[in-house]
């Protein structure tokens, strides 16, 4: 497949006030990933069978499981009946369907291969969702253990330790440093619980706000990339998504520049986003994709860079990136399978330090008390 490196301007339909007004939705209304996957699959099946687009949308509307989805499909169907393309009808709802889906559908309509593009899009979205699900699934166990640690610690500090304080005060036993620290923490949380809860809540909200800011997100993503274990997972996930998305776009003959600009929004890490934007700008000057990504060796390892270069030289970049995507997706799956066994010893050590330290702080004065008698 010949790859063009020429950027092409897309014709975008400006939203009229009426379109903007009717595309508004409540903050909690959105389409789930499963709903978008289902719609994409059904669109592909019906379009491949030769069912007209308006009839397809009407059928999907009848199968809609939520009011919001039904309303959305009604609006899209109305726009298509008025002469708009499917991509233009979806564009006001980009937050629901995503830039990737809309641009690939636009390319499919332009080339007359919409059913093929929808099939490629469905496979791309399905693979992407599988990666995200595996990552989330692997993190459930560590999250439960950490939550249990905090739960046990809070219970001990708020309910158990205060009862022991009275006993220690009655016998006037000399308290070791760990016990005094534990009592001070218990006293603070017991008598100043509102302040403690407010402070913790404020910290969480401040952290959430900070990582949403451009500068905060960049700092946070830098920390994650350089974190043990987590950093390697983030790199594999982003490279896999990059390879799969770019491969899907190139199979629909979308120019590389437009492909990279859209893919940048698909990736979750800001450093990968910036790397692709930088690469897209260099490609407009005649540089190949492999050369454009080479300065970002900290994000794209030599293996993927070599595969890109070979694919470009052979004129089969889309196929080579598909192979790379399969490779890195398998790497992610293997890492996710072994992650719990890697984290379990660390979590057990932390749990042992936490619970064990608390137990020592309680037992030491009791031991001193028994010795006194």
From TrEMBL:
Annotated GO CC locations: plasma membrane
UniProt domain Type II secretion system protein GspF: residue ranges: 40-162, 242-365
Topology term for the membrane: Multi-pass membrane protein
Keyword Cell membrane applies: yes
Pfam families recorded: T2SSF
Principal location class: membrane
Domain of life from the UniProt record: Bacteria
Signal peptide: none
Annotated compartments: Cell inner membrane
Keyword line: Cell inner membrane, Cell membrane, Membrane, Transmembrane, Transmembrane helix
A Gene Ontology BP annotation from the UniProt entry: protein secretion by the type II secretion system
The keyword Transmembrane helix is assigned to this record: yes
Family, per entry: Belongs to the GSP F family.
Name listed for the protein in its UniProt record: Type II secretion system protein GspF domain-containing protein
Native source species: Candidatus Uhrbacteria bacterium CG10_big_fil_rev_8_21_14_0_10_48_11
